[in-house]
Every structure is written in structure tokens, then in C-alpha cells.
């Protein structure tokens, strides 16, 4: 099998399944500066420091897996987290500069595919003919989503593997979509995390461009908040999802050779597993973060993203940093607790921008009024609501210097979840005790 490939230079627009929705994708112009920016992977076989850094990062990924329900240890106090975190930083400080100046792309054959990452011991091979067969020539019956990049299909490969096949649409903006396609390949082939959609491979043949990723069967977070997937998401599940997303973004920002800014964090790009855990998708707008070792503080680039989630400072200055993802995450936190979309045109003017409306209510001491009406006003829910909105307020600070890092967001959310579980357990115990006493008095 040959495996030479074209040099991927810019990004694809989706790594997840996107429904024709409520989203308003903001594209002020094509990211010309991004087109010439490579996000290369260091050649670890020639660079022992790179191999060591990646090895430590792998340990850290394990630490970032969601804790067991019975684990009362907090994210902040976790000895494993602190040890692997400090090791990763130490490795990065010694070798990151060299790593960022050299790299080599991992590529797949355009006529066939081989699994490049993941923990599966076996490898998969497929051709374009296999994809046509698995999707019945891209039959509408196999369609599971639609987005800016194109259409997403569910496919069952010959060996039984179920995958999501993203087929680029053939549009007039061929150069733009090609750039985003290459971007997503480039990003996905470099990352591996429990809370990121897994990359399986891609195909380019004639005018067909196909991206093959993990199939996540339970829809998007937005669909769950809209109750299009059955049961209402309780606040405990929403907290778990927020932590999963925070872990994924922290990994992108801090624990890979060349940190990545996702640039399109939103509820329709978060896929939900059958166990109600989150996987971040869609790396079409992703950008390599500024090289802080060389003194860079931001990446100058045209604005890409989705209206309602966009960092206002980035909009004004065209300066992209990791804190732009933090702002989008703040909007997502508000979305999780209110159930509303970031922009709600049907509401009156003062409630139309959900984050602005919710923050005003919170500052005025009326946070309880923004809780999703589908959720109960229990003591645990009300306490978590206050604390989540307090974190969202920090993330939504107008100036990026005032926003916390994603790592800090994850730490705060772990603490909120710990307090939430303790209060919920205490409330349940109190309710059980009261019920038992009532039954005992009735019998007497």
C-alpha cells in the first residue's frame, strides 16, 4: 500500500455530524494567513525529546479521563494530575521550541486507508469503492447530518466497523472547502483524547473528498437540550458534559506538541455518547496556537466561527488566542444551564443574546430565573447554577487577559460537581429519612 500524500495545509469544516440548524456561521473572509500555516507533527523517531514529551502527554490523557462516580478526589487535588501536568510542562519547556520548528505530516493513501491512531490493535483498509458500497452510493437513507463542510453519512464497513463518513459538498467555493478539509485532516491526525472524536482516515479521488471519523450514535448536545433525543438532560449530566469539553480543550491548548485553538466550540459540535458523555468534533476552523516560546502572543487571522459564540475581542482585533475558545466555552456554559441557544431571535430584544441576558440576571442577584424550565429548582441545582454562571462570567470577560485558562475552568467545574453530588446525596438522604419517619408514624 502506498502512503505518500499531498501536504495538508488548512482545515476541514466538520468532524462531527451537524444538523441543518439554528447555527449562523460567521465567515468574514477566507483565512488567507491560515492557508500558509502548517501544523506539523514532530518527527519523534529522530527527536527523543519529542518522544518523551508525547509519552508524558499520553499519561496526562489518561488522567483527563472522567473520574469514577465513587471517586471523591477533586481535579485540583489529584496527585496524578499534578504529577503528569508538571512532567508535561517540564518536557515541553526543554523540547517544545525545537519541536515547533520541525515536523512531518502523517498521511494516508488517497486510494486506501489505514488506521493511524487509536488503541485498536487491528488496522482497517478501505477504498472509495468500499465507501460507495457502505453508504449505498450516499443514499439519503444513510444521512445523519448536514453542515457547512457537506453531508455526513453512517456507514458500516465490510469488517463491521461503524463509522461516520463526511462527504465534502461540491460548491463554487472549492478552494475554501479544500482548505478546511486539509485542515481537519491535519488536526485530527495529531490528536487523540477520550473526549475528541476519533479520526480514521480520508480519501481524495477525482472531485470526491471523504473524511472518515468515529460514529457517535447519540446526536449533538444541542439536540439533547432541545429534547429531540428523548429524555431531558438533568443538571448532573450537563455538568459531566461541561467537564468533558473542558478536558478536551485543555488537551488541545496545553498537551500536544503544537497547541491548537479549536475556534468553533458550540453545542452542535459536541457529540453525545450513549452514556451521555461528550466528544468534541469539527476541526475545520482550527488554528495552531501562537508559539509562546518565540514571544508570540496571538495569531493574526480573519474571523472564522459561529455567531453568538465569537470572542468580541477577536472580532475587533483579528487577534486569535486560546482565550477565544474560553469565551466560546463561557457561552456554552450559559447554554447548558438555560437550555437556550446563544441567539434567540424570537425573544424580546433584551433576552435575544442569551449570554448577555443571563449575566445581567446573575449580576442582579436573580440567577434562579435563568435556569432551564425543564430542570427542577432543587437546592443542589440552584447552587450549581450560581457557581456555573459565576465561572461563565469570568470566561465572558471582554478582555482576554481577564479570562481563566481552560485548565482552570476544568478545575473549577470539578469542584462544582463534587459539591453538587454531596448536596444531592444529602438531600436524598434527608428525603429518605423524612419518608421513613412518616411511614413509621402512620403504622403507629
UniProtKB/TrEMBL annotation:
Regions of biased composition (Low complexity) lie at: 86-98
User: Per UniProt, which keywords does this protein have?
Assistant: ATP-binding, Kinase, Nucleotide-binding, Serine/threonine-protein kinase, Transferase
Q: Tell me the ranges covered by the Protein kinase domain, including all copies.
A: 138-415
Which one of the record's GO molecular function terms can you name?
protein serine/threonine kinase activity
What is the reaction catalyzed? L-threonyl-[protein] + ATP = O-phospho-L-threonyl-[protein] + ADP + H(+); L-seryl-[protein] + ATP = O-phospho-L-seryl-[protein] + ADP + H(+)
Binding positions for ATP? Answer: 170
Instruction: Tell me yes or no: is Transferase among this UniProt entry's keywords.
Output: yes
Location of the region described as Disordered in the Swiss-Prot/TrEMBL record: 1-48, 86-119
- Its signal peptide is none
CDD domains this protein is in?
Answer: STKc_IRAK
For this protein, the record's SUPFAM superfamilies field holds: Protein kinase-like (PK-like) (SSF56112)
- In the Enzyme Commission scheme, what number(s) does this protein have? 2.7.11.1
The family database entries (SMART domains) matched by this protein are listed as: S_TKc
Which stretches are tagged as biased composition: Polar residues? 26-47
Similarity remark: Belongs to the protein kinase superfamily.
What is the name listed in the Swiss-Prot or TrEMBL entry for this protein? non-specific serine/threonine protein kinase
Q: Which organism is it from?
A: Acacia crassicarpa (northern wattle)
